[in-house]
């Protein structure tokens, strides 16, 4: 009579006897269609793809809708919603007969590849159709990034089930390793996106690489053990479909146009020459401009009206040898004007992205020449970059917190896409400025007349300085304009003439922004 373990141990819990009903512990592990290490590897890879896709989505959205707390909130919420639905659907898929479930998972991987590679084109198409504003941004994010997020997460429950089945009797540790692989993959995806893929390859290539990686997972998703046959299920994508998907992904990566002319992890830049003017755009927003008819660096013209207003104030307020801090290098047009007009002046420009400086040197003739003649780029051993034009590649707030230098004036002109970074328009930031800047503070904003950003910054300056003036220019097509402010401990003399077609701005009282409750971005 054969030995019957279940007969000798009748109280053995059901979950412990289940593996033996399949033919014994050793048999189940040996005959598993997918090895445990393979399932863990696939979970890790797909988690990395998902997080890389999420971060690339936020980056590629910037040239169309800017980058702010709202855009990142929309991207994160949409992608996580897709992950949630994909996992829920994948749970039902995992319960199906093995061959059918494998076919569904492989279809999901093909769909993931195609949709991820298609994402930049889909976003551009929606924008070309006239989708604008916060509502248009939300619709574009959902339509572009939600479907791929669903499909990339759909295989996870099936893979988790396969991992547990591959190690019967060790369900707890198997589940723990499944969860750890998912988290590890997400970490790797975030690092790859932020430090490698987006800065080095750009957005379009990153999306194509995500799709290609999903396709590379196909051979490892099996319904039979290795060598146990390769018969396809009716639910599995045929070879022609897979080849077509691979060709599409490759075409998207190689032939698809670059979203940015110059791209880093921080900026999407374009340089446009129109007549006698060259303009630098960051995320579709005018960053700087120079007239190229007059190439005399000793007498540079200012092409943008807000820079003419700021320069008129600086020229009126500052002495012959001021030391001026510029938070936001941009096109370096104002530092160039200052140094050309005042031979004894000194400037420090804090620009977070070294790519901006490189593009300016290459394409903005007078600013590039001034940087070549007088510029000194700070190094790790010389964070303050001594010289007539010191260039510091750092976050403006970090520089303010760490510098020990004193300045006669400061120009706050830092932008992230179409708005000011929230941490640069808080009471704490301007309190720090007040301790290291003895003279005027000049601020450039983009907002609606009497908008929330202008009101919050005006409240900060009014609480710190007895004399504050604010003026605004003409409205653009979406009802926003440059709002420029000047604040000082001493009275600000009126300007001579009209430097930039600006008029006094009426700004209502409001709550001052703080590090705890700050600016959330344009809606």
Structural commentary:
Keywords: Membrane, Polyamine biosynthesis, Transmembrane, Transmembrane helix. This is Spermidine synthase. The chain crosses the membrane at residues 36-57, 69-93, 105-129, 135-154, 175-198. One of its GO terms (molecular function) is thermospermine synthase activity. The protein is an alpha/beta fold and 523 residues long. It is 52% helix and 13% strand. It has 18 helices and 13 strands. The protein has helices spanning 5-8, 14-21, 25-30, 36-65, 69-94, 98-128, 133-153, 155-165, 171-201, 203-216, 239-254, 305-317, 333-341, 354-363, 365-374, 396-402, 427-436, 452-464; strands spanning 262-263, 268-274, 277-282, 285-291, 323-327, 346-350, 375-377, 389-392, 409-412, 441-447, 467-472, 481-488, 503-504. It is elongated and about 85 Å long. The relative contact order is 0.09.
Give the helix proportion (percent range). Answer: 40-55%
Shape: elongated
Summarize the main sheet. 9 strands, mixed
Task: Tell me the strand order in the biggest sheet.
Answer: 7-8-6-5-9-10-12-11-13
Structural class: alpha/beta
Q: What fraction of residues sit in β-strands?
A: 5-15%
- Which spans have pLDDT < 50 for at least 5 consecutive residues? 1-28
Number of strands: 13
Any idea what the radius of gyration is? 29 Å
The assigned CATH architecture of the largest domain is: Up-down Bundle
The top-level CATH class of the largest domain is Mainly Alpha
Give the end-to-end Cα distance, rounded to a whole number of Å.
Answer: 78 Å
Number of domains: 2
Average the pLDDT over all residues and give the rounded result. 85
Number of helices: 18
CATH fold assignment of the largest domain: Growth Hormone, Chain: A
